[in-house]
Suppressor of tumorigenicity 7 protein-like (Athene cunicularia), 543 residues
Amino acid sequence: MNLGCLSQDTPSHPVPGLAAAPRPPVLLVKALFLFLLTVTVFLSTLTPKFYFALTVTSSFISGLIFVFEWWHFRKYGTSFIEQVSVSHLRPLIGGAENSPPAAASFSAGESEASRQNMPECKVWRNPLNLFRGAEYSRYMWVTGKEPLTYYDMNLSAQDHQNFFTCDTDALRPSDTVMQKAWRERNPQARIKAAYQALELNNDCATAYVLLAEEEATTIVDAEKYFKQALKAGEMIYRKSQNCHSQSPQHEAQLRRDTNVLVYVKRRLAMCARKLGRIREAVKMMRDLMKEFPLLSMLNIHENLLEALLELQAYADVQAVLAKYDDISLPKSAAICYTAALLKARAVSERFSPETASKRGLSTAEINAVEAIHRAVEFNPHVPKYLLEMKSLVLPPEHILKRGDSEAVAYAFFHLQHWKRIEGALNLLHCTWEGTFRMIPYPLEKGHLFYPYPSCTETADRELLPTFHEVSVYPQKELPFFIHFTAGLCSFSAMLALLTHQFPELMVVFAKAVSIVSWPIKSPELSMKSFILALLVKIEGERR
């Protein structure tokens, strides 16, 4: 038998008890060789125009990503790439399974009281909210901008349904119509329903309330509607008082009629305040607080504080603060900053930062500075509006305490009171930033109040109009991807500029980088010789 006809590649019979050795991936190496050879030929034939177009395109795309990241961060406060990574990519790679559930963040021995002590982002009704028809609508007619957000108006609709409706509305046709009116989204539909309710019952107080809020285009017209609502509301309230103990339904009706009466009287006092009848407004507010002392959660005292400041009755303002600036009662920017204003009034006229730095602060000045620090810690957004470092917008119908919405509402009504006291804004300007040295980590630990809530920015963006730049505290650092895309855009632009100015040199540089980037140990070996040496080695091992 001719053994020469047998090829060396003919496999021998396997030896019993020994495993066959695996064949080296010769075809894979050959395919890799062809691919790298093709890439090498392609790169060697590229012209300087290609490298210039490549760098310009890379710079343009990274610039677009950078601009979009910056816009998303300014509008929503987060990085879009990070948000997508957390919400979409993490579940795909199993990150959500490894994260502990939210309920597990509290240990077994932790009491329920510790959860209640954590501050919550609760939205409150603005005590000094404007009239929709006479103020908000007039602003929209003049500027063409919508001053109220859908979220804010939806909260107001829920408030109206809670205040002005009850289970016995089905017994009176006019109240049934008004119950539907408060749920309407279209203002014209609400106004039409109010007139329908008045046709059924000329003494429907809630119908007059709706017309005063939304149809009246001046404060004078709104006051006329509220006076009609007061007349009808007092009559219905007396009837409800006489029969409220007959059944639970009558008790619910009495609560509803009480809410209507208190709302109408409060708005009448605000109309008198806006029309310049300050003393009349103060008297109406005091009478309302005496008649319904249990309704302090409506914060009528904040309306009274603003009216007394307009009268410059500072002794009466101090008396109101002594009653409501208590540790057991919820605080507000109106209370904290009004207390700071009264203490600043005693020293602001003679205050000078140069003199104070030489002789030190007196006791009265220390008290004033501490009061300002206390107010700034409660709401750090207010000073920028009082010092006119940020532009004001119309306050929303709901506010978030310690948030930017509360700061806008407070400064909108109280800026004039700070300007009236000589030197008060100067004292605020010199001292308010010192608050932040006492609370270097406001989200973790406060000084006189709870740590600053981290959810205010999201809620304020829902309450304030889109054309207003929401104030953020504490200032957030720029996300990593903004820095990354900015650096990538700058680097690509620099390469494009160099390629345009020195095309031949940059082509040589690009080819040198592509050769160096291959994993070749010996510098004198080219890519082709490296692959050939690899093939020879594999063939030798097979033999």
